[in-house]
Known about the structure:
The protein has about 90 residues and is an all-alpha fold. It contains five helices and no strands. It has one domain. It has helices at about 5-10, 15-30, 35-45, 50-70, 75-85. Residues about 1-10 have low confidence and may be disordered.
Amino acid sequence: MTSSNEQNQGHNPRLKATFLEIVDNQLRDYDPPETRHTFERLIAQGISEEDAKIYIAQAVSMEVYHTLKYKKPFNRERYLKNLGRLPKEPLE
Length: 92
């Protein structure tokens, strides 16, 4: 059950957990390898493992958003570009 504070901020814990699961799967499967490289880069910059995964999940969520909104396939080039921008926010 979500708290009213989470609902007021637009936070959906189930959706967050789903995006983090995608990140965990990408890290485990080394697919794409750039996810693992980004994770290691962020940790080397002093970002915690948990926060590094959240940053990567932002790039994942951007791709899911574009896929659903514009009914277009996953854009690997944009995803990799956004991974490269982290910890800055993804573009597009």
